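Hi Y.,

Following your request, here is the sequence exactly as I used it, all 276 residues.
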Amino acid sequence: MQQPAELRPNGDEGAAATADRSVFCDHAAVGAADDRYYGHDLALVHHRGFGFHASACAPGVLALLEPVLARNGLVVEIGCGSGLLTRELVTAGHRVIATDASPAMLDVASDYLGPDAPELQLVVLPDDPLPDADAIVGIGHPLNYLPDAEAIDRAIVVIANALRPGGIVAFDICDLGWGASRRDAVGQGRVGPDWAIITEFSTPAPDRFVRDITTFVPNADGSWRRAAEHHENTLIDTSQLPEKLAAVGVTGTVSDAFGNETLPEGLRVFSGEREP
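Below is the corresponding structure, written out as tokens. Let me know if you'd prefer a different format.
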């Protein structure tokens, strides 16, 4: 998932929200998430303020999935988040099962997609199986949220085993270069009319990228509440992915994008096909 570019209001409306509103931060609501996946407030902020990644990736993903659409195949989405790419898939005519490891994200996705929502499933890789599929896709580097490289390797096997013969797989994933290029990154923040986020970064090891995230969202009474989450991403040498996927019957390549979009430095895309 792309991170905020700088500390600034998000357009004129965001500036008004910070300059003209009397904001009371409800410190009684301060708390830390107890797992590595998105809690309610961060899921909401991510949906409201970070849709640009899904918008950028969707055309390339849809182009890769054209053969699947032509045969009315089933697309399984991993790390569907709040349903931004899911909506693009459904609108294009795909049959979709959207999965995520965060119950809060699935709640936001259900609200966002409304009556058009496909089947939504709570799936925590690598221990949970995926439905058999003609395509498996994921954006926002969901595999990097697994605790270590061994768990990512196991998840790759789960993905390959769920792909039907001739099935297509495409997902983005953070390389070791993601951390190397952000070793001196400073804290960043963004503000919108009904959300704010501050993120601090650290790289305690070459294969570890850490975000300490503070969010602010409004309560019904006009006060604002604060929540905090600690996210650790496992970074991998993505050049090894083709060999690892080939060992489980998937032939593919690592590239810089799904299509013509420009992804952040260190975010790579694996795309491939299961043997017929």
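Residues 178 and 261 are 17 Å apart (CA to CA).

Thanks again,
Q.
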